[in-house]
Amino acid sequence: MVAHISAVIFPLIIIISVVPGSSLFSWHPTLMAVGASLLMVEGIVIFSKSSSLFPNMSRPTKASIHYLLMGGGVSCMIAGLVAIYLNKEQAGKPHFKSWHGLLGVITVGYACAQSSGGALAKYHKYVGPIIKIRLADLKLYHATSGLLAYLLVTVTLLLSLQTSWALTSIHWALWYASFASVCASAMVVMTHITTTYLPLVTGQRSK
């Protein structure tokens, strides 16, 4: 249950601290936290034998839920990016000048590319003859690429806790709880990916 609790704690703390709708800026941390922490984590661990809320569900059904959760997560991240872009435009501030802002836009871009890879896997029967990649290989590439994607998400979220807004608006105890929840989610997600898919990569290389 660690994955689910930590996935909820971070966006909950952000929502309490920023109050969504109180300003245009408020939608940036809210949407990013919900998309990157809650929806993406749940979309990944649904495949985990130890962390999934539905361990006995068929894999095709899990894949469909994964598709919806990840699509929702990426959509929230894009909306969050738009919110902070418009907020900075209104304030006359420069864009992507901090490490958080720069890595954030890279992360959103990579997440979109990662989602495109997932769409190719889902609709492989239509695009397979065009892309010339076996479905098994495409799923493996998608999963291992997801490890880098979530690493980027984790670093971006941790950098968000170093911004002036987070340091001044989040209570110190909640700040440490946020930090711990992001790290806990990352450990669960990365452990799931490395233990499930990296052995397959090693097996392919040894052939």
TrEMBL record:
Chief subcellular location: membrane
Record's keyword terms, sorted: Electron transport, Heme, Iron, Membrane, Metal-binding, Transmembrane, Transmembrane helix, Transport
Membrane topology, as annotated: Multi-pass membrane protein
Cited InterPro entries: CYB561D1/2, Cyt_b561/ferric_Rdtase_TM
EC number(s) given by UniProt: 7.2.1.3
Domain Cytochrome b561 per the UniProt entry, residue ranges: 1-199
Pfam families, per the entry: Cytochrom_B561 (PF03188)
Compartment(s) of residence: Membrane
TM ranges: 7-25, 67-86, 98-120, 140-161, 173-198
PROSITE patterns: CYTOCHROME_B561
GO cellular component: membrane
Full protein name: ascorbate ferrireductase (transmembrane)
Gene it is expressed from: ORF113857
